[in-house]
Every structure is written in structure tokens, then in C-alpha cells.
Design brief:
The chain is α+β, with helices and mostly antiparallel strands. It has helices at 2-33, 90-94, 106-111; strands at residues 38-44, 52-54, 70-77, 100-102, 114-115.
């Protein structure tokens, strides 16, 4: 009887090891060769003409290394990331359909994480009056 119990134990152990190896090989193939995952990329945003995401960079530790207070986010496939000219992928994402822009929702606007365009205007005190010099 002890030999049969040992065989069952060994079969369970072999099945477990083979399952783990298969899992590792499949994950390596999907993530390293196929690059079957997405990147979220932040690009510069002009808050005077576009709806932008916003974060307060005056608070220490609140900004990533790009120091963008106003930004757009795009989702792109990892296999397309090599086509970017630089790490922020601004040119690639604004001129290509491979990137999907993340749009602001109404709740983002209410929470203050998203701001609507605010065109800059010249204050009335800075406007020079036109003089009428007609005789």
C-alpha cells in the first residue's frame, strides 16, 4: 500500500511542476514576444484649447518625472511603443489611430481632475484705446 500512495504523491507533484512550467512559458511568450499588454501614455495638453486632465504639481510627490500639470492620456499597445520617437509618444499618438485617447467624464470634471478649455483673454486694463484723430 505505501508504494501506491507514493505514486499518487509523485503524480500530483509532477502535474504541479508541469503546470507551473507551462504557465511560465505562456506568460513569457505573451508579454515578451507578442507584447500583449497596453501602455498608458501622458502627453502635453494646451488647457486654453483642449479639455485636459489636471494634477497639482506644487504638492511634493504628486507629479511623475514628466512634471505635466495639464495632460492627455492615451492607451496604446506595447508593440506600437517602439514606433514612438521619444518616451512621451506625443507625435505618434496625436497623428495615429493606434492610440486611443482617454476622454474626460463628467465626474472627472466635477472632481477637478479634468478641466475644460479656458481661453486666455486680455484684461480690459491692458487694452490700448484707439484714438480718433479724424479732422
Amino acid at each position: 500500500m505505501p508504494t501506491e500512495d507514493k505514486k499518487t504523491h509523485n503524480m500530483f507533484l509532477y502535474t504541479l511542476i508541469i503546470s507551473c512550467l507551462i504557465s511560465i512559458v505562456v506568460s513569457f511568450y505573451l508579454f515578451y514576444f507578442k507584447k500583449n499588454y497596453d501602455f498608458i501614455v501622458e502627453t502635453k495638453c494646451d488647457s486654453t484649447t483642449q479639455t485636459c486632465f489636471y494634477r497639482d504639481c506644487s504638492i511634493a510627490g504628486n507629479c511623475p518625472p514628466n512634471n505635466l500639470s495639464y495632460y492627455n492620456t492615451y492607451t496604446m499597445s506595447a508593440k506600437d511603443f517602439d514606433k514612438c520617437a521619444n518616451e512621451d509618444c506625443t507625435d505618434f499618438c496625436t497623428n495615429n489611430t493606434a492610440c486611443v485617447k482617454t476622454e474626460c467624464t463628467d465626474s472627472d470634471i466635477v472632481d477637478g481632475t479634468c478641466v475644460l478649455p479656458t481661453p486666455t483673454t486680455t484684461p480690459i486694463s491692458d487694452i490700448t484705446p484707439i484714438s480718433n484723430t479724424a479732422n
